[in-house]
Amino acid sequence: QVQLVESGGGLVQAGGSLRLSCAASGIIFSTFAMGWYRQAPGKQRELVARISWGGSTNYADSVKGRFTISRDNAKNTVYLQMNSLKPEDTGVYYCNAFKWSDYWGQGTQVTVSS
Q1: Tell me, what's the pLDDT at 59?
Q2: What is the pLDDT of residue 74?
Q3: Rounded to whole angstroms, how far apart are CA atoms 22 and 96?
Q4: Contact 97, 87 (CB under 8 A)
Q5: % helix, strand, coil for the chain, step of 5
Q6: First and final CA of the chain: distance in angstroms?
Q7: Residue whose C-alpha is closest to residue 33's, from 49, 20, 18, 11
């Protein structure tokens, strides 16, 4: 059974920082691509950042230079460091694991106030 558990969301002022964590179980973590997606109210879920099993990364244009995705294979955990947060970053952030298909966590709320 695949399980992805996010943590680290919360309420923060614009310009502040948060670090999200996603702990994975039920997969051979080091062989999966991992990612973070978000869904703002009234919008579709969108890619925020992804990291391959080999460590290559890609980011949404809106977060480049502000967010950093990383992974610790020894801990089966992927992180999203979010700096210089803006109100438009508000949404539910979901952890994703991909190999042949997608697996999703339950999401964690991030709210950025102006």
Answers
A1: 98
A2: 96
A3: 9
A4: no
A5: 10, 55, 40
A6: 40
A7: 49
- What's residue 42's pLDDT? 93
At 106, phi and psi to the nearest 5? -85, -15
| 80's tokens | 């999203």
Cβ neighbours for 75, distance < 8 A, ≥ 6 positions apart: 23
**Cα(96)–Cα(113) distance, rounded to whole angstroms?**
26
Report the chain (114 residues): mean pLDDT per 10 consecutive residues: 97 98 96 97 96 97 98 97 98 97 97 96
Cα(86)–Cα(82) distance, integer angstroms: 10
Instruction: Report the alpha-carbon distance of residue 37 to residue 45 in Å, rounded.
Output: 7
